[in-house]
């Protein structure tokens, strides 16, 4: 892994002092009072190349200005029934904090369907969670734990992963590209739990395509991962799908609904949704909120090769399992009757 030196940071900082005023404002929203840490993240993402890191960061700032990302936390997804449908089909939440104070972000990758709204709503929802994490959750954690906290832990539940996951690759590639280009180095570790054979097959293909820096962050845990995860977090912060073998993600909670961090009724999503509505009221006190997604320009990245490799692997697995040509075409084309 490249060593980020003080000379690199000094050179990068000098270059950033020359950016235009609109970019300086959104830059403040990114660094939240810790500009050196932000520069270090972008340098890591570009292997210590100052020029490439500067271009990456300025491209990110321009993307934020052009797409009004600074205002996205004042753009609620309405009506609430639509937002609940998005939460039921985009299984993401926050279950707590690690022992070191890092937010634990949980993702139900296996059962996420992205089938209740347009791609723009899902992208809006994803960016809102990113911005809420960076502008609210992480600053609060920094204050609580008495040290700068700028990264999180992500736990991916692969329960229910099927060949039909191919339908989601385009949207997943868009979301991954947004994160790679505009929120680099925000995840400390990626934990994979409840992984079926189909994931293992895809992982063997994808792993060599990933940057070494990313590969080192991925940990594939046995079963639900409870024993390993309890070494770095308390039971209360453990995602619900890790608390017992075979529990897995659920689109709808069982037992105590509050325990399901994917649910709109979970405290994280309740706080997030309340925050967005409050910001909307502050900024649009004299205007009625209108229904409609917040369109964001999708960035381009190098993830297409990875998506293509996953697609080929799923197609091969489908052929091995005797999928008929008609069903195979339905999956590949992303169509359903």
Automatic annotation (TrEMBL):
Stored InterPro entries: CRAL-TRIO_dom, CRAL-TRIO_dom_sf, CRAL/TRIO_N_dom, CRAL/TRIO_N_dom_sf
Family annotation (PROSITE patterns): CRAL_TRIO (PS50191)
Domain CRAL-TRIO, first and last residues per copy: 79-239
Protein name: CRAL-TRIO domain-containing protein
Source organism: Lithospermum erythrorhizon (Purple gromwell)
């Amino acid at each position: 892994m490249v060593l980020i030196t003080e000379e690199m940071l000094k050179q990068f900082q000098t270059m950033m002092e020359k950016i235009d005023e609109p970019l300086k404002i959104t830059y403040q929203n990114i660094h939240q009072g810790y500009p050196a840490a932000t520069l270090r993240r972008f340098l890591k993402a570009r292997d210590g190349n100052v020029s490439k890191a500067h271009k990456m960061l300025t491209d990110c700032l321009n993307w934020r200005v052009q797409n009004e990302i600074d205002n996205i936390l004042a753009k609620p997804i309405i009506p609430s029934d639509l937002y609940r449908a998005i939460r039921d089909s985009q299984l993401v939440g926050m279950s707590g904090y690690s022992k070191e104070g890092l937010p634990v972000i949980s993702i139900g990758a296996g059962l996420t369907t992205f089938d209740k709204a347009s791609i723009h709503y899902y992208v809006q929802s994803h960016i809102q969670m990113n911005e809420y994490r960076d502008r609210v959750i992480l600053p609060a954690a920094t204050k609580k734990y008495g040290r700068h906290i700028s990264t999180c832990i992500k736990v991916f539940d692969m329960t229910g992963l099927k060949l039909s996951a191919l339908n989601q690759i385009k949207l997943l590639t868009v979301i991954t590209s947004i994160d790679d280009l505009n929120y680099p180095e925000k995840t400390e570790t990626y934990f994979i739990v409840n992984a079926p054979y189909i994931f293992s097959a895809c992982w063997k293909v994808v792993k060599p395509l990933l940057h070494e820096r990313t590969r080192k962050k991925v940990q594939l845990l046995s079963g639900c991962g409870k024993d390993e995860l309890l070494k770095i977090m308390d039971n209360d912060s453990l995602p619900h799908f890790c608390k017992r073998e075979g529990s897995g993600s659920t689109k709808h909670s069982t037992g105590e609904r509050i325990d399901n961090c994917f649910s709109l009724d979970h405290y994280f999503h309740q706080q997030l949704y309340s925050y967005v509505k409050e910001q909307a009221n502050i900024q649009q006190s004299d205007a009625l909120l209108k229904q409609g997604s917040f369109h964001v320009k999708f960035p381009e990245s190098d993830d297409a090769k990875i998506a293509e490799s996953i697609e080929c692997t799923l197609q091969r697995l489908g052929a091995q399992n005797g999928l008929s040509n008609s069903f195979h075409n339905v999956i590949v084309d992303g169509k359903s009757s």
